[in-house]
Design a protein that fits this description.
Blueprint lengths: L1 H79 L10 H36 L7 E4 H18 L3 E5 L6 E4 L1 H25 L8 E11 L2 E10 L6 H4 L17 H11 L3 E7 L3 E9 L7
Helix pairs in contact: 1-2, 3-4, 4-6
């Protein structure tokens, strides 16, 4: 019996380190395979994104090119004066021509700004996300965002208000990137309500936007949820399936990268972005972020 126990202990002393070594090797291979799969998925996504970028910049570039040609024609007409010298042109005729030229420049300026926005959004979405993790109180972060965005919301006829958690909603995250993600949702909601009001679309009133924080438990983990709830026109079912696709936008002159960028930022924090929408009543976008502090419920 003594020899049996001694042999068993000896076997275990050999087997356990071998098992640990094999388990660590397997875990390492799984992590490497996961990283390779994510890298391949990211490359495929960037390939589609690049193709979409080429399509998106064609329209503003074509508009700029067309207006340059029209400007050349306008300037030539002024120079020759339709058979007159430039200084012999009728003052009203000259004013009309100069006004037309000014409108051409304004159009080109808008298109150049649109190109810049498209490229900026592309770089933000396509670039690497490097998190500068710090301890963040979400109540304070939302208060800062509401103070910052309230004037813009008020200009659009929207009343923005916050409903913080009764607890200190502490997470580990990148404050700047999280502000960008939530601000994207606030901008989308405000513009959607403003556009629905102008187009007289059915809605939940188009006048209230709520940012609410609540604690939650999911799958045995503790999370903080941030709800951005509007009273706009909602999202139609066929469009709801596409809103996270790059370059899909329901807004006029939207780049279609705001929501994909927001979702990517949240996923980099280990969280999720989801939404519920009722056409004609409004939408609720929900950010779910893991907390670094246990939630007492």
């Amino acid at each position: 019996m003594v020899y049996f126990l001694a042999g068993l202990l000896l076997g275990l002393s050999v087997a356990i380190p071998v098992y640990v070594w094999v388990a660590r090797g397997t875990e390492k291979r799984v992590r490497q395979a996961s990283r390779r799969a994510l890298a391949a998925e990211r490359l495929a996504e960037l390939g589609k994104l690049t193709g979409g970028l080429a399509h998106e910049i064609k329209n503003p570039l074509s508009s700029v090119n067309l207006n340059i040609q029209l400007l050349q024609e306008d300037l030539q007409q002024i120079a020759v004066g339709n058979g007159k010298q430039a200084n012999q042109l009728d003052s009203q005729d000259l004013a009309d021509r100069l006004g037309r030229i000014n409108r051409r420049f304004e159009t080109m300026s808008r298109e150049v700004h649109r190109l810049r926005d498209i490229l900026d959004d592309f770089l933000r979405f396509a670039g690497r996300v490097k998190l500068d993790l710090v301890s963040i109180n979400l109540n304070e972060l939302i208060d800062e965002l509401v103070d910052f965005f309230t004037p813009q919301a008020s200009t659009a006829g929207v009343r923005l208000r916050a409903q913080p958690s009764n607890e200190d909603s502490i997470i580990q995250g990148d404050a700047s990137l999280l502000k960008q993600a939530i601000l994207n949702l606030l901008i989308n909601a405000t513009q959607s309500m403003d556009q629905a009001r102008a187009d007289k679309l059915p809605s939940g009133g188009n006048d209230e936007l709520l940012v609410r924080i609540e604690a939650a438990r999911e799958g045995g983990g503790n999370f903080w949820r941030i709800h951005v709830t509007d009273t706009g026109p909602g999202i139609e079912t066929e469009k709801a399936e596409k809103i996270f696709q790059p370059y899909f936008s329901t807004k006029r002159n939207g780049t279609g990268l705001g929501l994909p960028t927001t979702r990517r930022i949240i996923e980099e924090h280990g969280g999720t972005l989801s939404f519920h929408s009722e056409p004609g009543r409004g939408s609720d976008f929900m950010i779910s972020l893991p907390t670094s502090v246990p939630i007492d419920r």
